[in-house]
Amino acid sequence: MSAEAPLGVTPAAEDGVGVAEMVEEAAVWCAVHGLVVGDRSQPRSGTVPGVGLVHAPFSLLPTHFPASFWKQACELAPIFNDLVDRVSLDGEFLQDSLSRTRQVDDFTARLLDIHVKMMEVNKKEDIRLGLHRSDYMLDSETNSLLQIELNTISSSFPGLGSLVSELHRTLLNRYGKDLGLDSKRIPRNWAATQFAEALGMAWTQFNNESAVIMMVVQPEERNMYDQYWLINHLKESYPFIICFLFPCNVKKTLAQVEAEGQVLPDGTLVVDGRTVSVVYFRAGYSPNDYPSEAEWKARLLMEQSSAIKCPSISYHLVGTKKIQQELAKPNVLERFLDNKEDIAKLRKCFAGLWSLDNEEIVKTAIEKPDLFVLKPQREGGGNNIYGHDLRETLIRLQKEQGEALAAYILMQRIFPRASLTHLVQGGVCFEDLTISELGIYGAYLRNKDKIVMNNQCGYLMRTKVSSSNEGGVAAGFAVLDSILLTDEVIAIYRLIIMNIY
């Protein structure tokens, strides 16, 4: 990993403007505009709205990002949306690809059990809604944009991520001339409004004016304000929905769904006396979300219903690490996509991905562990294995033999270029070498054969100290950021807007 001249804060920021002044203004902006999360030091901050707030961790200024790679990432979003939908329809592929994983991973096995039940009754999902996020890093070794993972469930931070872009634009409008930075080079971030639009359009397609949109959440959620921003935009775009039992204010845990929910003979999902049209999962992606059988019963109950699931169980499975690795194999994409140009674009962004059955790659990873990442079938950050721990884990798995190898995949480690950045956490600003990860949001909605929506719809930039292996904001490893496009930025950005919006 190589360091370069600071991209986050230029010398002018220290000499002419003053970092402390910018930090104070930014912190005030966060408080006034709702760029906040729950304070971990306040026990009630994850359960009671408005109690124990602190600004979300953020970078003081946006990170430089080449316009050509930004354009590439945006163009990939609709292709990945389509791919997820097509792969989800191939139940045998999902079951076969994850068959060995189910033997050693209880969580994946339970998801597959629900999927099997849906296959056995030939459950049809006429209306299919996906809110995805594909994450990338710029690899300095190959000078290419490489995919980290594809998220198909609980793609977080569309609300707060959109706000960080506005925060940086505000700061550059005031200080940009002294810093030599142009606020117009920060792409508009429509993630929150576009996600809300997708949820609203799904509600419309369901065609039941008395039905509600239900958000499935964790019992303690300090990132609830990211979720509330979606609710707020949904109310603004679909105010007429509010007349019917406040449908976009329905937030339930899995346990509450199990206790209050039922599926009527016609397939209608009713929770707490309300008909549910859309189930939007912001929980259910981790084993921690299923502490008892009640939560698994709730997941099955919702899957059996006619409500639109975001994601459905099949969409959820498409987002597993093992499926990502399977799709990277030769000739597999051709099973699902016909357009050769689209296939080539996807392959161009694939990093090296291998199963642990590949003895040659495993041997290389043991010898050179710093060149690889070992990934289990988990979401949410803090799960990957690196360096010495990677070597020790592979050696142990080899000794154990059996199916334990199927619980992981090996991935080529990506080496982004590090730069000096000012990071702000808890009102404290510090400077460190950082690396960044770009997530591109995508929204997909299909009603039978009609594609209602297939868009790239905003982005999430996360920046972390380069010495940290993990990168989740909610997990405490990273800060929220935005991007400052370089090169032929304005012409390219206008082209993207014309094509997408």
TrEMBL record:
Q: Which UniProt keywords apply?
A: ATP-binding, Chloroplast, Glutathione biosynthesis, Ligase, Magnesium, Metal-binding, Nucleotide-binding, Plastid, Transit peptide
Instruction: Give the location in the cell.
Output: Plastid, Chloroplast
This entry's Enzyme Commission designation comes to 6.3.2.3
Name all Glutathione synthase substrate-binding domain ranges: 211-318
- Going by the record, the broad EC class of this enzyme is ligase
Matching entries from Pfam families are given as: GSH_synth_ATP, GSH_synthase
The catalysed reaction is: gamma-L-glutamyl-L-cysteine + glycine + ATP = glutathione + ADP + phosphate + H(+)
Q: Which GO terms describe its cellular component?
A: chloroplast; cytosol
Its annotated pathway reads:
Sulfur metabolism; glutathione biosynthesis; glutathione from L-cysteine and L-glutamate: step 2/2
Positions binding substrate in this chain are 133, 153-156, 221-223, 227, 282-285, 462, 473-474
- Residues recorded as binding Mg(2+), renumbered to this chain, are E149, N151, E379
- Write out the residues that bind ATP: 149, 321, 375-384, 386, 411-414, 437, 464, 470
Q: What does the entry comment about cofactor binding?
A: Binds 1 Mg(2+) ion per subunit.
Query: Where mainly found?
Result: plastid
Q: Which cofactor does it need?
A: Mg(2+)
Family listed:
Belongs to the eukaryotic GSH synthase family.
Recorded hits in PANTHER family, A to Z, give: GLUTATHIONE SYNTHETASE
Q: How does it assemble?
A: Homodimer.
What's this protein's name?
Glutathione synthetase
